[in-house]
Amino acid sequence: MKRLILMRHAKSDWSGSGQDHDRPLNPRGRRSAGAMGDWLREQGLLPDEVLSSSSMRTRETLVRLNLPEETPTTFTRDLYLAPHHDILRTLRRATGKTVLMLGHNPGIGWFAREIVAHAPDHPQFDQYPTCATLVAEFDIDDWRDADWGKADARHFVVPREL
């Protein structure tokens, strides 16, 4: 059994004039990421591996989740604004039992819809808003066997519900 925690980065700050890759979180995003980290701990859903986009907003989201420092983490440009098929390719290289992936829309939302056998009954699942998080389980022994429609959705939560 493998578990995927699929999270879109928290709300970012659009007030700066720098590069998109370098945008930080805004105050609401910082609060949302902290609340999502609390929720993950309360549910006993701490990852043993993190695969994250290299962007500033995904990095800051991860910091605000307040996961154990020893959690192996890979930051990759491959997940920055990645389409769904690139996200799957990255997931298939994972080694942990419970993997947290942090990325961006529209790819992360598209990936979430395609990876589960049945979409969660949640009014915001199709929009996959900032810091939205899907927890899905696969009946596989190796991430190389992850494929479209093979995951069972266990939770879908957005920060406003926390």
UniProtKB/TrEMBL annotation:
PANTHER family according to UniProt: OS09G0287300 PROTEIN
Transmembrane portions of the chain: none
Species name: Sulfitobacter sediminis
Region (Disordered): 10-33
Protein name: Histidine phosphatase family protein
Pfam families: His_Phos_1
InterPro entries assigned to the protein according to its UniProt record, in alphabetical order: His_Pase_superF_clade-1, His_PPase_superfam
